[in-house]
């Protein structure tokens, strides 16, 4: 082999080994990417769908609710009256008619209503009530939603005096985990992210399989000055700023923490009393005193104690030190498999 041939030989050898290394690195890169994608998709919620809310005429809504008859009223909330109605195709739907005085007294209620509702309708998740339509007319703002069953968590926990429909621990953890996943979707998948604004038991609807669905999300702007129904489910900071300014993810996490305490204790939030009562007991390791006395203690207390600690972190005084909802989901998903 002459000098020239030797050089060519070394050159080809070097080329082969470097392309081998390059090939190896490309392979490694794809392997790692797939792995981290899989990890990411296990932890993170799915991306939002396309906005799907469609406009309805007031006449359509009038027909669906039989002229807003009281016989079709499911309940009254901070923002309006909810009706069980029938769509043109005969499907059961829920219709929320915003109180006329809120529409008339609040500029926000008029401003951008349809665009807010359309944007909220891109939230498609098994733990969220879907928004399917809306109607706007002078003095009228109406939201059309999927009908998500007749029962909410407040009814199970607090409107059940003879204890006939008590939720067992398995169902309670399932509800806590599902509600956290719904909230995580609003906070982390929606762009811009959606603040629920009123996380509490009556806004967690429960189906026959005990799957929870959050309702009433992203609507606080309709009633920025309305305190009714919020007391006890928002932190102290909420009331300090200008109205509506305290509406943030950390505040949703606080409300979620209160719901966890209600699930554990079976007691109502009583305008903040529950947090003051339960927190020291959990801190002092007197956890069994917190648990709902109406149902049997589980043989293994650890999963519920873990849930208590999550609640403790969520209702902490300092907003910055509270967990983000994704961290809560990771723990609750795990607990769900343990009970
Ligand atoms: N999509 C729905 N499907 C079935 N029932 C619903 C639906 N949305 C709301 N409801 C029921 O209607 C009633 C009123 O709900 P709404 O959310 O307006 O008020 P609330 O939760 O009692 O108070 P707030 O307005 O403070 O959240 C509740 O009993 C709730 O369970």
TrEMBL record:
InterPro entries for the chain: Kinase-like_dom_sf (IPR011009), Prot_kinase_dom (IPR000719)
GO cellular component: plasma membrane
Keyword list, A-Z: ATP-binding, Kinase, Membrane, Nucleotide-binding, Transferase, Transmembrane, Transmembrane helix
Native species: Cucumis melo
Domain annotation Protein kinase: ranges: 68-339
Gene: LOC103484492
Pfam families: Pkinase
PROSITE patterns hit by this protein: PROTEIN_KINASE_DOM
PANTHER family in the cross-refs: OS01G0253100 PROTEIN (PTHR27001), PROTEIN KINASE SUPERFAMILY PROTEIN (PTHR27001:SF39)
Official protein name in the record: Probable serine/threonine-protein kinase PBL7
GO molecular function, one term: ATP binding
Transmembrane segments: 7-31
């Amino acid at each position: 082999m002459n000098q020239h041939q030797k050089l060519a030989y070394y050159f080809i050898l070097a080329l082969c080994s470097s392309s081998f290394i390059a090939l190896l690195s490309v392979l490694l890169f794809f392997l790692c990417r797939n792995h981290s994608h899989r990890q990411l998709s296990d932890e993170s919620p799915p991306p939002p769908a396309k906005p799907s809310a469609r406009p309805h005429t007031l006449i359509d809504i009038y027909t669906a609710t039989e002229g807003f008859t009281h016989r079709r009223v499911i309940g009254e909330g901070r923002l309006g009256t909810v009706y069980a109605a029938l769509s043109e195709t005969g499907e059961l739907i829920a219709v929320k008619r915003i109180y006329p005085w809120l529409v008339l007294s609040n500029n926000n209620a008029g401003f951008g209503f349809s665009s807010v509702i359309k944007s909220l309708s891109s939230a498609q998740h098994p733990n969220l009530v879907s928004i399917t339509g809306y109607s706007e007319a002078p003095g009228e703002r109406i939201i059309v939603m999927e009908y998500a069953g007749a029962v909410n968590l407040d009814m199970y926990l607090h409107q059940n005096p003879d204890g006939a429909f008590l939720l067992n621990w398995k169902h309670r953890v399932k509800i806590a985990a599902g509600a956290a996943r719904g909230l995580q979707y609003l906070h982390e998948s929606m762009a811009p992210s959606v603040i629920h604004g009123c996380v509490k038991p009556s806004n967690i609807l429960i189906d026959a399989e005990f799957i929870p669905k959050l309702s009433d999300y992203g609507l606080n702007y309709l009633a920025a000055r309305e305190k009714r129904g919020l007391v006890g489910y928002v932190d102290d900071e909420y009331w300090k700023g200008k109205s509506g300014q305290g509406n943030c993810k950390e505040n949703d996490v606080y409300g979620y923490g209160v719901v966890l305490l209600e699930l554990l204790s079976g007691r109502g939030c009583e305008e903040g009393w529950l947090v003051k009562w339960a927190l020291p007991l959990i801190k002092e390791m007197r956890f069994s005193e917190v648990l709902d006395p109406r149902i049997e203690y589980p043989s293994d207390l650890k999963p519920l104690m873990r849930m208590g600690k999550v609640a403790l972190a969520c209702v902490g005084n300092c907003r910055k030190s509270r967990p983000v909802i994704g961290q809560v989901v990771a723990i609750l998903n795990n607990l769900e498999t343990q009970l």
